[in-house]
Amino acid sequence: MFKIDCVPRSSSSGRSLHRRDFLACGVAGMAGLSLPQLLHAQEESALRGIKTSRKRVILFWLNGGPSHMDTYDMKPAAPSQYRGIWKPIPTNVLGISVSELFPLQAKCMDRISIIRSLHHNTADHRPAAHLMLTSYAAGGNERNFQGANPCIGAVVSKVMQTRTKDLPAYVSIPVAQSIDLRPGYFGGSYLGNQHNPFETDSDPNNDNDNVSGINITKNLSIKDLSDRSKLLSILDHARRDVEQRGRFETMNRFQQQAFAMLTSPAAREAFDLSRVSQATRERYGRHTWGQSALLAGRLAEAGVTFTTVLLDDWDQHFDLEEAMKQHLPKVDQLLSALFTDLWDKGLSDEVLVVVCGEFSRTPWMNDGRNVANGEVMGAPGRHHWANSMFCLMGGGGIKGGRIVGATDRLGESPITPGITPADIHHTIYHCLGIDEKIRFVDHGGRPTPIADRGRVLKELF
After folding, report:
1. 337 neighbors 88 (Cβ within 8 angstroms)
2. Backbone phi, then psi, for 179, in 5-degree steps?
3. What single DSSP character describes residue 258?
4. DSSP code per residue over 352-395
5. Which of 245, 275, 327, 355 could form a disulfide with 16 if both were Cys (CB 3.0 to 4.6 A apart)?
6. Dihedral, CA atoms, 7, 13, 14, 16, nearest 10 degrees?
């Protein structure tokens, strides 16, 4: 039977068409477990008392590496070079303080927990991002472009599938990007490209922009979708256009789903922020980050299982103060609004929110000079640091108002047992009811666990 997925739309950036724009007909090969094998694995998990839940995840990815010392693990008693520019303020949880640039989160800290002893000691962007997003070390260095393992979102897409036929299981807002790589380490790797995220590829703060890949072009109506000859003509033109660019991919994952997204009022409504009150939009912040968070919350409410939100530009080697003045109030606003909405809508136990980047920044501030030649590059900043970093978690069964782990008085390293990226993955899988013993066959033909060795952070439950 002939199936259409969607009609390509040219990107505003002029890039060639991607699979989210044109989803090809045909059947893509399935990597790893077949459906019967997957169902058997789920049955075995159920026998061990592991039940798949209906929970969803929103991951805020702070691309570039945010500083723990200026956000959630401040050291006011440390020397001035370490303690940074801002003062800590108390929260509504006794004993927990955060940056003075987080006054809104301070009022809802009882819904959020902070992991302060996270570390992995990998201070190169790409290997660190691979480690945080897949739980596995990639090896290599900054030149390691390829993801050796699937992102946690891709694993969730594979294991849990979509919760509703009209929406993807795995969405990235506005794009899936890790250290200039797209989808980079957010991709499906050996699970197959069909488990790459659906990228909205648009600015949700732009009232005149729409989600790429699910919009019906002005030359194509719903009626046209049932016209086989017209569809064949459109598909043929799109296929030639894509093949000429050398980017043709078969994407079985979205075949029936994309048609549903085109024609389902419920699916289109979930992506349509024009239906949201202006007061709500203002509460999240009328900027790309705020509206991305608002959209992520709507998609989770509608049934999207795993959503990533890109919050870019955290690589502040220099001029840290100015960047943080721009970034931190936005993060404060959007997280406060999202947690408020989840609680008000009765979704506090259904949606898990995770906030992290690939690593942190040095506990000490530099003098704004290039280390190699002493050239003044700007105002002081912080370089790469992975010996201590933070991760925020809240909702989805996680208890709020808790601190997991601690760092030393200078914020340089954990003084409690360190938390690893794999521990974060095991904890997320635990929330979702996914058995960490499930294995998939990697590119080398080896059965590989969905997460590297780690533990569930029981302290959060």
Report:
1. no
2. 55, 55
3. H
4. EEEEE-S-EE-SS---SB-TTT--B-SS----EE-SSEEEEEEE
5. 245
6. -60
Non-local (6+) Cβ contacts of 46 within 8 A are 52
Map out the domains of the chain with their CATH numbers.
Answer: 35-217+264-460 (3.40.720.10)
At 164, list the tokens.
């509703």
CA distance 433 to 436: 9
CB-based burial label for 30 (10 Å; 0-12, 13-18, 19+): middle
Instruction: Quote the pLDDT of residue 265.
Output: 75
Dig out the tokens for 65 from the structure: 């590496």
Task: Collapse the DSSP code of 110 into the 3-class scheme (helix H, G, I; strand E, B; otherwise coil) and give the result.
Answer: helix
Residue 333 near residue 349 (C-beta atoms within 8 A) = no
User: Would residue 135 be called left, alpha or beta, if left means φ above 0 and alpha means ψ between -120 and 50 degrees?
Assistant: left
Question: Which residue positions in the chain have pLDDT lower than 50?
Answer: 1-40, 141, 216-220, 222, 225-226, 228, 231, 234-235, 238-239, 241-255
3 state SS of 41: helix
Token code pair at residue 74: 């401040």
- Which amino acid is present at 36? P
- Note the pLDDT of residue 25: 27
Helix-, strand-, coil-residue percentages of the chain, each rounded to 5:
35, 15, 50
pTM of the complete model: 0.83
| Residue 375, token pair as written in the block | 């050239």
pLDDT in tens, 26-63: 223 333 444 444 444 555 555 555 555 689 999 999 99
Dihedral-angle region of residue 378 (phi above 0 means left; psi in -120 to 50 means alpha; beta otherwise): left
Report yes or no: 404 and 432 within 8 Å, Cβ to Cβ. no
- Rounded Cα distance, 421 and 202, in Å: 30
CB-CB neighbours of 232 under 10 Å: 12
Burial class (CB in 10 A: 0-12, 13-18, 19+), 202: buried
> Who contacts 239 (Cβ-Cβ below 8 Å, separation ≥6)?
22, 24, 248
CA–CA separation, 52 vs 43, rounded Å? 10
Residue 189's region, left for phi above 0, alpha for psi from -120 to 50, else beta, is left
